[in-house]
Amino acid sequence: MIEETDDLFDKLHEECGVMAIYNHPEASKLAYLGLYALQHRGQESAGIASADGIQIYRHKAMGQVSDIFTAEVLAKLPGRLAIGHTRYSTSGDSALLNAQPISVECNKGRIALAHNGNLVNAHEIRAKFEAQGSIFQTTSDTEVVVHLIAQSREQTLEDAVADALRRIEGAFSLVMTTPDRIFAARDARGFRPLCMGRIPASEGRPETVVFASETCAFDLIGANYERDVKPGEMIVVGPEGIHSRYYAPALEQSSCIFEHVYFSRPDSLVFGRSVQASRDEMGRQLARESHVDADLVIPVPDSGVTAAMGYAAESGIPFQFGLIRNHYVGRTFIEPEQRVRDFGVKLKLNPVRALIEGKRVILIDDSIVRGTTSKKIVRLVREAGAKEVHMRISCPPTISPCFYGVDTPSKKQLIAANMTVDQIRDYVGADTLAYLSLEGLKKAAGEGDKTSYCTACYTGKYPTQLVDVHLEDLAAVEVKSE
């Protein structure tokens, strides 16, 4: 049986977003703005490291970007280079010591590093270092990369970074600064997004090179998207210009398809494709595969909105915002003395009774993870007077945990790993329930055009060896052969 949870929204969470700026007089301010645009990728902590050619300055704290980086804080982050990070913990505890960037001075010089993703052999590498006497300051797998760089036998920093990246396995999009250079790299399978752009030169100011997890960060700072950092590629930007090299041969590309389903903002280009276009097509394909007669198509905001619009357009059934989200809900410690049923969900969502009452409703969401929130939302819609509730999900059933930077529950907590679709329908209380097929999802996300995707969370077939996986999560794990 699925374990009950009090989470307000039992979504999957992505680890973080990264940002890097090279050669701008207000580099730390641009990094701040970029992180602000990437805040959806992590709300737990944030940090910026800046460099002025001689020193590296850093500030990081728990909380959200706008609360951490005041004008006074940014004034203490001088220089024309900066990297930034906003975090949701998937590896390491939720604590300030694990906030990034991580900054060190080692035999290769001063460096500050931040990464998005999860390394599947980090614990194995860490255990070897600790056995040799190395001391770790954090529980984050990012620090493993720093130790690999510091202990590499390569003579130059660039070669040491390349050597370190060859020795780690899993998902990473990484940005790093030295006092005068920015590094950006992606893992050889391209699990996590990382794109490159430029701010044109103007009024005597030279061109600025920027990197970010998503292109929505470029829009806010006036940068033009140029291209993605390619799988297995490391780009170095310094006084001598831009230099690119492949630290490892690219493997079969396994970009995370859930970026298009849920994580990324719809106004971003991710893996070279519009997220908005992918989600719209997911909704359209869902309507083709599982049409049902109804009066209204209603999204679960915000992640179900674009797919619901696509479903409505394809089916001809009117789209309405029948659930209104309260965007100003933080943590609350005040609950009614007599506990209100579904109080947590009601804080965030409220149904529009005038639209819903007496109607046959198609409720569109991007995923069902544990199922507890979906159950509460269906109950809200029924209590608002819906005559029928038909739930449609714009991805396949999530049956396996992710080990590449997505904070997925274990298999015993994933409702689709333990119940049939009919059983899930009964559990959430819908009249009908249908998921988008895997082939439909791949088609909607444009597989084959520019990328191929990792779909392990839907298939249980993993593209890498899983060295650090806990035994209880290893059940039914299959690793694809090369």
TrEMBL record:
<feature type="binding site">
    <location>
        <position position="366"/>
    </location>
    <ligand>
        <name>Mg(2+)</name>
    </ligand>
</feature>
<keyword id="KW-0004">4Fe-4S</keyword>
<dbReference type="Pfam" id="PF00156">
    <property type="entry name" value="Pribosyltran"/>
</dbReference>
<comment type="similarity">
    <text>In the C-terminal section; belongs to the purine/pyrimidine phosphoribosyltransferase family.</text>
</comment>
<feature type="domain" description="Glutamine amidotransferase type-2">
    <location>
        <begin position="16"/>
        <end position="240"/>
    </location>
</feature>
<dbReference type="GO" id="GO:0004044">
    <property type="term" value="F:amidophosphoribosyltransferase activity"/>
</dbReference>
<protein>
    <recommendedName>
        <fullName>Amidophosphoribosyltransferase</fullName>
        <ecNumber>2.4.2.14</ecNumber>
    </recommendedName>
</protein>
<keyword id="KW-0411">Iron-sulfur</keyword>
<dbReference type="InterPro" id="IPR005854">
    <property type="entry name" value="PurF"/>
</dbReference>
<dbReference type="GO" id="GO:0009113">
    <property type="term" value="P:purine nucleobase biosynthetic process"/>
</dbReference>
<comment type="pathway">
    <text>Purine metabolism; IMP biosynthesis via de novo pathway; N(1)-(5-phospho-D-ribosyl)glycinamide from 5-phospho-alpha-D-ribose 1-diphosphate: step 1/2.</text>
</comment>
<keyword id="KW-0460">Magnesium</keyword>
<keyword id="KW-0808">Transferase</keyword>
<dbReference type="GO" id="GO:0000287">
    <property type="term" value="F:magnesium ion binding"/>
</dbReference>
<keyword id="KW-0658">Purine biosynthesis</keyword>
<dbReference type="InterPro" id="IPR017932">
    <property type="entry name" value="GATase_2_dom"/>
</dbReference>
<keyword id="KW-0408">Iron</keyword>
<dbReference type="Pfam" id="PF13537">
    <property type="entry name" value="GATase_7"/>
</dbReference>
<feature type="binding site">
    <location>
        <position position="365"/>
    </location>
    <ligand>
        <name>Mg(2+)</name>
    </ligand>
</feature>
<dbReference type="InterPro" id="IPR029055">
    <property type="entry name" value="Ntn_hydrolases_N"/>
</dbReference>
<feature type="binding site">
    <location>
        <position position="457"/>
    </location>
    <ligand>
        <name>[4Fe-4S] cluster</name>
    </ligand>
</feature>
<dbReference type="GO" id="GO:0051539">
    <property type="term" value="F:4 iron, 4 sulfur cluster binding"/>
</dbReference>
<feature type="active site" description="Nucleophile">
    <location>
        <position position="16"/>
    </location>
</feature>
<feature type="binding site">
    <location>
        <position position="256"/>
    </location>
    <ligand>
        <name>[4Fe-4S] cluster</name>
    </ligand>
</feature>
<feature type="binding site">
    <location>
        <position position="402"/>
    </location>
    <ligand>
        <name>[4Fe-4S] cluster</name>
    </ligand>
</feature>
<comment type="function">
    <text>Catalyzes the formation of phosphoribosylamine from phosphoribosylpyrophosphate (PRPP) and glutamine.</text>
</comment>
<feature type="binding site">
    <location>
        <position position="454"/>
    </location>
    <ligand>
        <name>[4Fe-4S] cluster</name>
    </ligand>
</feature>
<feature type="binding site">
    <location>
        <position position="303"/>
    </location>
    <ligand>
        <name>Mg(2+)</name>
    </ligand>
</feature>
<dbReference type="InterPro" id="IPR035584">
    <property type="entry name" value="PurF_N"/>
</dbReference>
<dbReference type="InterPro" id="IPR000836">
    <property type="entry name" value="PRTase_dom"/>
</dbReference>
<keyword id="KW-0315">Glutamine amidotransferase</keyword>
<dbReference type="GO" id="GO:0006189">
    <property type="term" value="P:'de novo' IMP biosynthetic process"/>
</dbReference>
<keyword id="KW-0328">Glycosyltransferase</keyword>
<keyword id="KW-0479">Metal-binding</keyword>
<dbReference type="InterPro" id="IPR029057">
    <property type="entry name" value="PRTase-like"/>
</dbReference>
